[in-house]
Specification:
The chain is built from 14 helices and no strands. By secondary structure, it is an all-alpha fold.
Length: about 280
């Protein structure tokens, strides 16, 4: 039954959590709570996310040497696709703080002991597959418009994109394509990872619950995706260094958003008995 555990959870009965309606005010409150979690011990959380600016700088240097500048923008956008998985340790810190437990940074690795770790890994693999497809699509679009030879300098790429009809086509179509990948990621994972940390419901239930959350709250969820996209873009501008602050806040805020969207187990309404069953018991 190991495979079922990954897909369906710890039990053979699929447990579909109750999804609540939320408002834009709930998004603001989730961000405030996320910022509060971050500022409680910011030095610890920055340590967890230093890999983002480091990787960003390394990628920039790597592309400078191997003439792959056209992938710089897609790679920056790709942070939003793998971010929900990469920030899972931050969800755990917020969960522990909510329970009044020790929130030292080392506890971020407690997720490795989670009974739902296989389901978490399965959705993580899915996100990396989406990330790879996005890079492949972006590269294919560029080569279709400009050919396989890429500029050797970033300034040449910027000039190529902003001063040619093909460049404007690349900007418009590429951003629409990226939006499609971002919407897929938002719909399938907006509450999936926090849910799995909280309850071992399995990958299938976690993903379908995220989709139900978006369908029930389309405007707030799209607004959330837009807020995250803008925040990541601004955090990426100063050589990705801003991501060391932006990502932790969004990571913690995602946990609090999950708490607002998904009804806790203890508050979930009991299922109604069938009328026939109730009558049978009165006889």
């Amino acid at each position: 039954m190991a495979n079922f555990h990954v897909i369906g959870g710890a039990t053979e009965v699929l447990d579909h959590p109750t999804v609540r309606k939320i408002t834009l005010a709930d998004l603001i409150d989730a961000l405030k709570r996320g910022a509060s979690d971050f500022w409680a011990k910011p030095s610890h959380y920055v340590l967890l996310t230093l890999i983002y600016p480091i990787v960003g700088i390394v990628l920039a240097v790597w592309m400078s040497g191997y003439h792959t500048w056209p992938l710089l923008y897609p790679l920056m956008g790709g942070f939003a696709l793998i971010g929900p998985f990469a920030a899972i340790g931050l969800y755990e810190i917020s969960r522990r703080r909510e329970l009044g437990l020790d929130t030292s940074w080392i506890h971020a690795f407690e997720v490795l002991r989670s009974p739902a770790i296989a389901s978490i890994a399965a959705i993580g693999v899915f996100l990396f597959a989406v990330f790879t497809l996005w890079l492949t699509a972006a590269q294919g679009l560029y080569e279709n418009l400009f050919g396989s030879s890429a500029p050797t300098q970033l300034s040449a790429l910027i000039n190529q994109v902003l001063t040619t009809p093909e460049g404007w086509t690349l900007l418009i179509v590429g951003n629409l394509l990226g939006l499609a990948f971002a919407v897929i990621t938002l719909c399938t994972t907006v509450v999936a990872f926090p849910l799995l940390l909280d309850r071992d419901v399995g990958a299938y239930v976690a993903v379908t619950t995220s989709i139900r959350a978006v369908l029930k709250n389309p405007i707030p969820m799209l607004a959330w995706g837009l807020i995250v996209a803008i925040g990541l873009a601004l955090g990426s501008l100063p050589l990705f260094v801003g991501l060391a602050v932006v990502i932790p806040i969004f990571g913690h805020a995602t946990w609090h958003l999950y708490r607002k969207v998904i009804e806790p187990v203890e508050m979930a309404p009991r299922p109604r008995r069938r009328a026939s069953t109730a009558k049978a018991r009165t006889r």
